[in-house]
Amino acid sequence: MKNNCKKRKNPIAGSLKKMFLMAGIFALNVGILHAEISSGNDESEISQQERISVKGQVITDKGESLPGVSVVVKGTSVGTVTDLEGNFTINVPNRDAILTFSFVSFKKTEQKVGNQNFLTVRMMEEVAMLDEAVVIGYQKVTKKDLHGAVTSLKIQDIEGVTAPSVDIMLQGMVPGLNVQTYSGAPGGRNTFNIRGNTSVLNPNEISQPLFVLDGVPVDAEVVGYSAAATNFLTNINPNDIESIDILKDASSASIYGSRAANGVVIINTKKGKSGTPSFFFNSRFGVGLKPKLPEVYGGVAERQKKMAMFESTGTYAELENMPLILTDSLNTAFNNNTDWYDLFFQEAIVQEYNISLTGGNPSMNYRLGFGYYDQEGTMKGTGLDRYSVNANLMNKVSKIFTFNTTLSYVLSNRKAPKGLPDVDAAENAVNLSSEKMPSSLLYLNDIDKKSLLGEYDDLRNENADENVSLSEMITIKLTDYLLFNSQLSYTSFNSRLDYFSPAAISSVGRSEAYSTQKKATTMNTENYFNFDKEFGNIHRLSAVLGMSTNKVQRFETNVSGSYLSSDLIKVVQGVAQEYKDGFSDFDENALVGVFTRVQYFLKDRYSASISLRRDGSSTFGPDKRWGTFPTASLFWTASEEPF
Fold first, then answer.
1. Which of 19, 200, 247, 475 could in theory staple to 264 by disulfide, Cβ–Cβ 3.0 to 4.6 A?
2. C-alpha to C-alpha distance for 246 and 263, rounded to whole angstroms
3. How far apart are CA 82 and CA 66, in angstroms?
4. What is the pLDDT of residues 462-508, one digit of tens each?
5. Cα angle: 448, vertex 449, 452; to 5 degrees
6. CA 206 to chain centre
7. Strand runs (DSSP E) across 26-97, as ranges?
8. Is 290 helix (H, G, I), strand (E, B) or coil?
9. Is 325 helix (H, G, I), strand (E, B) or coil?
10. pTM higher than 0.90
């Protein structure tokens, strides 16, 4: 019987990779490829020697302090937020660094650090920004008509930030948003919470907001369902994003009901533009620097220090029986200089290529985008590569009917620390803690190095996520002020983790293998009316009324075994019953909701808003299957007053 342990190659991934490499070579030849050596999204990517601390204060044009301003090092996602007095402190890589300051209703400001250690930044109000459209759930409103705490980011706000995922890209850019990395590993999961953690049942659980991608809500349990513990948000190519709207409080988020308790993040991807077909290509290249490593004695210096310690504190018996590793300096097994810290780290290459095609006319337009992202980890044996396809098609078949189709496909492969099976890799990703670090005098052969770094030929650690999403939306224009929208979407998320470690590198001669397969499917429908009408240039009424349904199914299969009959068998096969374990699981849940929002405006100065949603869910208690989520608010726009 043939062994099925060979690496499975994805023909789509191979073709895409070749295409992007060819595109990169072509771009280099015609001179449009640019390289930027940039700080990444992690403090470790700015070396300790180059780190410069800059302080400052942000004030308005009237000299008043401005709290909550986002301060970001341009071209990176390293940033901070000003305090209540408008003060900030930030680390920059060099004196040529440029700081970007952004805040709602104020003009975006940039300032070069130069030779200054304290910056006073004056931001000007931008009244025109109040007329910008913001997505608040099932409708768009202008910023001046907002009832609630919403932060809106457009494409110009996020351009130039090199990041593998949306959460890393938003670090330090949004007041009230806290994004923290658990491990720093490429593609690893991060915390993403808005205005603090709201979990009360489990203090160790981090609250996650509801993500809405092109109008499709993503179930929170699907977000964390990867078998390889890969960050779900890496399935969204930042280059495809048109805008991000973050709903922070109950007034703005209640329209999404029970799932919006931790806030809502609405992400819309780029759409087609009318005109002649246009081709766009961009690329980025960066280097992640090694972290500053502890200075340790190695080789001859280590031997001399330890010998001196023995001679000054050792007893006569200890001096008579000194370890051979210290006394036998001519033995090739004991006269080496292995840097155990440096062994695991490297300068990490980050590269990204994006190609898109857009065009059409007022009746039909399209956009097709391809992306390839490859990030090495600063820890050897870690990394992430992602292939993405995003397609949008708008077809206005008549003055009444408009169809919008969205299709996306993402394949990501994540390299995770493999290491020795008898070491807890979750605790020690490099497989050796500082107190267990062997002497630098010991000899390491190539097999030893490869097994520690996870590159041993017989090791297997395949982590793959595949995400497919299809959405169709129909908009029917009933009158000039009344629209009906109907959206049907389907999402399939597949995740696989296959691991094998041979007996040859185990201290107890134990081989191990396990395989986990996970799949989650989501079917979602949204049907709602939009009403917006003015009455005599004095009164205006805006309303939404609709219904949504959501069904999620999750499948999982897990099997593991140890003491395989041969290291040539890298799957759970031919394992004795006492060393074998496995299980499978299936569950599903469904939700139905009805919702409405009514806003009344008087002379564009005074406004009132009422939102109501009623959700019925199979995850609610048997005696409380339905929940009601109401909000109400009153606003006065003082800037519209004649005084």
1. 247
2. 7
3. 7
4. 888 899 999 999 999 999 999 999 999 999 999 888 888 888 777 67
5. 85
6. 15
7. 52-60, 70-73, 79-81, 87-92
8. coil
9. helix
10. no
